[in-house]
Amino acid sequence: MANLILNDGASLYYEEAGAGDPIIFIHGVWMSGKFFKEQVPFFQKGYRVLVPDLRAHGQSEHVHYGHTIANYANDLNQFITKLGLQNVTLVGWSMGAFVVWDYLRQFGDINIKATVIVDELASDFKWPDFEIGAFDMATLTSFMREIQSNQRGFLSGFIPLMFKGDLSEAELEWMLEETTKLPESIASAVLFDQSVVDYRSDLPNFNVPTLLCFGKEEKLIPVAAGEHLLEQLPNAKLQIFQNSCHCPFLEETANFNTSVDHFIKSL
């Protein structure tokens, strides 16, 4: 457990374990590094595992500025630079995928060995020419208002949509505890930015080896999103997790961990 001070003074919390080539797990919007609790014990046996809480998420300082995907990617660049990391594998889940892509767009892949993209679209927004997008403006507006007025109630309904199976009361409770650490003002601000970023035109420029991990259950993100990424990314492989929704790393932990490990070792 440690904290890294960013150039603008914000403090970023992260956990670290193991030794070897670095692997950084980047969580989704409103979430935290705790969602990767099943990955740390496995990967620390052969990698230097780093799990940051993004700006103001989880146990990071709740600063009320800098909440854009582009700035989260800048935070990631500072994280990699300040820790002197090389040969890095970036694992981006949900919004974390946008952070990975924005990092590649801004800073290139000079220190990056591979990327793993977990259940995300090239853009979450349902643009006129992107029908598989997750949100239209009416849905996004409704979500932002719910976050402002009924954060816990909204998340109590949203979190189960990330899973194919039913959550136990204890599982839902720890996830609610993590996601409600984020103040409502920040939660709605970053929701808007992460919902309207669009990386479709950038994907062909990302040559880094990429493993695409998608759950077959389509409550949030369709498998078609993974197929689209496979077509657009020049060096990608797609794996469908048959018994998962948005969180294959939690629903099919052993399969996810070994698949990512084999992918990295194959490079």
Summarize the structure.
This protein is of the alpha/beta class. The chain contains 10 helices and 8 strands. The protein has helices at 40-43, 69-82, 95-107, 137-149, 151-158, 169-179, 184-196, 223-232, 248-251, 253-265, and strands at 2-5, 11-17, 22-26, 48-52, 88-93, 112-118, 210-215, 236-241.
Determine the fraction of residues in helical runs and give it as a percent range: 25-40%
Run of helices and strands = EEEHEHEHEHHHHEHEHH
For the secondary structure, the number of strands is 8
User: What does the overall shape look like?
Assistant: globular
Q: How much strand content do the residues show?
A: 15-25%
State the end-to-end CA separation.
30 Å
Placed side by side, the strands forming the largest sheet appear as 1-2-4-3-5-6-7-8
Q: Please, how many helices?
A: 10
Largest sheet, described in full? Answer: 8 strands, mixed
Oligomer: single chain
Q: What is the CATH homologous superfamily assignment? A: Alpha/Beta hydrolase fold, catalytic domain
CATH architecture annotation: 3-Layer(aba) Sandwich
InterPro entries: AB_hydrolase_1, AB_hydrolase_fold, AB_hydrolase_sf
Pfam family, one: Abhydrolase_1
GO molecular function, one term: hydrolase activity
Organism: Cytobacillus horneckiae
Topology readout:
Elements: E1 2-5, E2 11-17, E3 22-26, H1 40-43, E4 48-52, H2 69-82, E5 88-93, H3 95-107, E6 112-118, H4 137-149, H5 151-158, H6 169-179, H7 184-196, E7 210-215, H8 223-232, E8 236-241, H9 248-251, H10 253-265
Parallel strand pairs: 3-4, 3-5, 5-6, 6-7, 7-8
Antiparallel strand pairs: 1-2, 2-4
